[in-house]
Amino acid sequence: MKNKELKILLSSPRGFCAGVERAIEIVEKSIKKYGAPVYVRHEIVHNKYVVDDLKSKGAIFVEELEEINDKSRPVIFSAHGVPKKIPEDAKGYNMTYIDATCPLVSKVHREAENLYKAGYHLILIGHQNHPEVIGTMGQLPKGSIDLIQNEDDAKKYNSKNKKIAYVTQTTLSVDDTKDIIQILKNRFPQVREPLKEDICYATTNRQMAVKNIAKKCDLFFVIGSRNSSNSVRLVEVAKKSGCSNAILIHSQSEIPYDLIEKSNTIGISSGASAPEILVNDFINKLKKRFEINIDEVEIIKEDVFFKIPKKLN
What is the pTM of this model? Predict the structure, then answer.
């Protein structure tokens, strides 16, 4: 019996963004320069495959600097950014540190600091406990920046400050953020907005690419980790854009072949921290059971590149 035919719409751009590529390269070059082990504070990017690969090369992952027994070894800060206190602590320990914070996250940090210095009270639109949010809030003194997570928070938010401004986490859903911002603008007409969009180009492009094909799909898969904000947002975007059957495929996922059997067209994308090898593995598993026809749908070419710190060259 001939295998069922299955059309795959492959979303492009997908997968690694320039900030993730830079962060991984920083870990690899640090191991080359300083030898193993090098320590990494927090997962360098939110992907188990990437983290395991770097562990095999000599990286040791910790949550806090205190966990590092040998403080003579270098430590790398993850792409999500860290509160100001962390580099200060590293200096206190006399540690060599390399900052792999994505330059687009660093831009938000500088923006928040400059607004604070100009006398603004800050609002951060983002998700509580996400490392990027912890890092951004940790740039400013306690009490000078408030977190708003959703439309309800925006409706209830009260500020006695005349001068307020907002910044956002870089990996949010473009559409959800738009609604939160509109509520804030209606309630606080004088609120100052970023000169340039905080949500990063890669998040925006990947969401646009998913939107572009979701309505044509019976089923949509996003390859990525459960703790990857941008991957989880892509699933939400697919659902809102016309494919109610959108699923995150992470390291522990079972492929739902029963659902695929009932589908004619499936969409595939991957989060900004998911390597292309995971997409290929997923497609290869499908090839064993189905006659596959792949159509890569590209909406924009990405050519962004971030330099790595000079001390690693």
Answer: 0.95
Options 21, 28, 111, 132, the catalytic residue:
132
Give the count of domains, the chain: 3
- Among residues 178, 199, 220, the one where a domain terminates is 199
Residues 151, 183 contacting (CB under 8 angstroms):
yes
Residue type, 288: K
Is 132 catalytic? The answer is yes
Verify that 209 and 266 share a domain, yes or no: yes
Unique residue bearing structure tokens 């971030």:
306
Q: Is residue 303 part of a domain?
A: no
Beta strands (DSSP E) in the chain are: 5-12, 38-41, 59-62, 75-77, 97-99, 121-125, 145-148, 164-168, 219-223, 246-249, 265-270, 291-298
- Tokens 């927090």 belong to 42
Question: Do the Cβ atoms of 177 and 125 come closer than 8 Å?
Answer: yes
pLDDT mean values, one per 10 residues, the chain (313 residues) = 88 97 98 97 95 98 96 97 97 97 97 97 97 97 96 94 94 93 96 92 96 98 96 97 97 95 97 97 96 97 95 89
Give the range of the structural domain holding residue 138, as residue numbers without chain letter: 103-199
